[in-house]
Structure formats: structure tokens, C-alpha cells
Amino acid sequence: MITENEYREENEAATKQAQTCEELAAHYRQVLQLLGEDPTREGLQKTPMRVAKAMQVLTRGYEMDAHKVLTDALFKEDYSQMVIVKDIDFFSLCEHHMLPFYGKAHVAYIPNGYITGLSKIARVVDIYSHRLQVQERMTLQIKECIEQTLHPLGVMVVVEARHMCMQMRGIEKQNAITTTSDFSGAFNQAKTRQEFMNLIHSSRTLP
After folding, report:
1. Would you tell me how many other CB atoms lie within 10 Å of the CB of residue 103?
2. Which residues contact 85 (CB under 8 A, 6 or more apart)?
3. Helix and strand tally (H, E) in the chain?
4. What's this model's pTM, rounded to 2 decimal places?
5. Three-state DSSP state, 162
6. Which residues carry out catalysis?
7. Residue 189 to residue 206: CA distance in whole angstroms
8. Pairing with 162, which of 28, 41, 98, 128 sits 20 to 30 Å away (CA)?
9. Which residues contact 206 (CB under 8 A, 6 or more apart)?
């Protein structure tokens, strides 16, 4: 049952979010004018508010605690082999041009007495991707979050992504894929890293 304090905090958060949305929409109306458009014409009248709401969704990760997500589903378990969650779809915004980059994240850790819910690994990716990002930092943040919260024997993260800032503008290379990785602990051993890479690139699909 929700407490009075929790109810008050939820109301305050909702009010703040609505105010932020209004302020963002006002700025987007100015952007449209600066671009030479008429924000009062039929097709654009609701665009500033739509974009403002979209930006709040795309950056919702700032309001979330990835560490808490993991600790809320922490279980003691005597399992010390590799746990892999691969092909985690994500979408993010490049902080340099605020254009999307998107792809898949692959995460592995070797438990050291504790495991977490599998969906929580995907949620950690979701939280860090829903911020203004660069792929390199996002990869590091995912790894550090799991490392600092679960204290496993090792963590490895691989992220593969396409960047619209390279496809829509600039160099305009449509098929370029950027791969980043970070690892610690047991994954400092080349054999362990290779096992992970072999498993994430296995073509076998589940029925």
C-alpha cells in the first residue's frame, strides 16, 4: 500500500515533469521559427509538445538508478560459471548531434555468490541508453554498474551499433557498424573473452 510520503513524492515528480515538458515545448517552438517554419500551421501546432514528450521518454534514464535495479533482485546462489544475456536491443541519442544510435548489447558476468534477475541486466542497458550518450561511455557504465553492485568474478560488455550521425550526415556511410567492449576480472584472460565472443556470435536460435 502506498504511503502518504510516497504519494506526495509521486505528485511532486509528476508536476515537475509536466513543467519541464511545457518549457521544452516552448523552446522547440522557437527552434521551428528559427528554421524558417510556422509553428502555428496545422501540421506543426502540436509538434513542439510531441517532441518534448518524446525527449522525456528518450532521456528517462536520468531519473533511474541502475544499481538499485540490480539490488532489488539480488539472490544468493552458488553458481560460478558465465551468465550471458545477449542481443539486448537498445536505442540511444548521440550527445554530439542528438541523433539516434541503435543496436545490440551483449553482457556477461561470472557470479561470486550472488546472481541478479536476467531481466535486470537488460534494464541496466535500457537505463544507460536512455540518456545522451557516446557508445564508449555507455559500454563502460554498464560494466561498472554490474561490477560495483554484484561484485562478480568478472564482467564483459560488448555493444554493436549503427550511428545515424554517420548515416544521415557527415561521412554518410550507411553500413558502418561500431563495436565497443569493456571487461574486468576473469575476462582479462583471453580464453574467457574468446568463449564469450564465441557464444554471443553463435547463430543457433531457440525454438
Report:
1. 20
2. 106, 107, 108, 118, 121, 122
3. 7, 7
4. 0.92
5. strand
6. 94-97, 135, 163, 165
7. 29
8. 28
9. none
**pLDDT (tens digit per residue) in 98-110:** 999 999 999 999 9
C-alpha neighbours within 13 Å on the C-beta side of residue 83? 24
Tell me the three cell numbers of residue 27. 523552446
CA angle 52, 90, 163 (to 5 degrees): 80
Reported as a single tens digit per residue, the pLDDT across 176-206 is 999 999 999 999 999 999 999 999 988 656 5
The cell numbers describing 203, all together, are 547463430
Which residue is listed with cell 558476468? 109
Contact between residue 104 and residue 89 where contact means Cβ atoms under 8 Å apart: yes
Q: How far is CA 5 from CA 9, 12, 56, 63, 96, in A?
A: 6, 10, 25, 18, 39
One-letter identity of residue 173: K
